[in-house]
């Protein structure tokens, strides 16, 4: 077969492997890879570059950087500076193409976790030798017709947009209702291929057992806690935080359970009786409390110098943890604010890597939930 259509199927909505990620990982593994895309997450690009033999990227550096929040802009800038010889700036490039030695991937999806896992996209896998060669020549022309950015120019540009919001957050809070099935595919777990669950348990057996105990305290509903881990993963994909990031704490504490802290504050925490706490910005309208099923607001949370900076709200989600996109937009806004308040969490000593594994590693999570809900 010379071409194949790539799109989300029913399994994607149920948490199956993303067909986009599956195709991309198969194309790039141990190959020489050429990439064209304006909207990229450093985390997802890192997956490609780790699998590839060599790689080169043509992108619109301006669009790439401004599409992210302030912290992500810095990490993107640093990635570009670390790989100047492999990245060319081509203003107004908008194609999304990956060309390897013998196959190519063309489509609408951006190379971000959301673009690959959640958005309704369409792509084509090309295996016809003549077409692949044509795309290789096309990329070569783009590469020759562009160049790497200069360090001083990049620094100047990033400084000039420092106060501007990302294009992703610069959008209306309101959204239209939709009956369309949402996409919630997961990535091929490259790390799980290399890191066996047995190794994780060997190094974290005591934490693993405590995590099981806490899950049992919180809920008897496997789907509910799986939804919680999915929501936590959405946040980590959005922020691109790693387990060793000094701002992130995924903990198992005696009194507070398995909440997630960014900086000095909780941003997400499951509670018993089908309730879940979220950090929310002050502009989240209290008139929405009844509609969104807010059952508690902590009046004494999140003050600095006697000035309130955020809200801590507890939502009722008895059977499953599902939030309207509007709520997530507000939540992510508050999460970003915490991320930008500092550089190091004062609670990092309480970080439990096993919780991060439960969030990000589907193989370990499946084993954890199997043992919890025997």
Detailed description of the structure:
By secondary structure, the protein is α+β, with helices and mostly antiparallel strands. It contains 14 helices and 15 strands. A 7-stranded mixed beta sheet has the order 1-7-6-5-2-3-4, sandwiched between helices. β13 and β14 form a beta hairpin. The chain is globular and about 60 Å long. The termini are far apart.
> Strands of the largest sheet, in order across it?
1-7-6-5-2-3-4
SSE class = alpha+beta
Continuous helix count = 14
Low-confidence stretches: 168-180
Q: What's the number of domains?
A: 2
- Cα-based radius of gyration, to the nearest Å: 22 Å
SSE string, helices as H and strands as E:
EHHEHEHHEEEHEHHHHHEEEEEEEEHHH
Q: Using DSSP, what is the number of strands?
A: 15
Overall spatial form: globular
Which strand-content bin applies to the residues? Answer: 15-25%
If you average the pLDDT, what whole number results?
A: 88
The biggest beta sheet reads: 7 strands, mixed
Helical content class: 40-55%
- Assembly type: single chain
What's a quick, concise take on this entry?
With 374 residues, the protein is α+β, with helices and mostly antiparallel strands.
Blueprint (SSEs and pairs):
Layout: E1 3-6, H1 10-13, H2 19-28, E2 32-36, H3 42-51, E3 54-59, H4 61-66, H5 70-82, E4 87-89, E5 97-99, E6 104-107, H6 113-117, E7 123-126, H7 129-144, H8 151-160, H9 190-194, H10 197-218, H11 222-239, E8 248-250, E9 260-262, E10 265-271, E11 275-280, E12 294-297, E13 303-304, E14 307-308, E15 311-316, H12 325-339, H13 353-360, H14 362-372
Helix pairs in contact: 5-8, 10-13, 10-14, 13-14
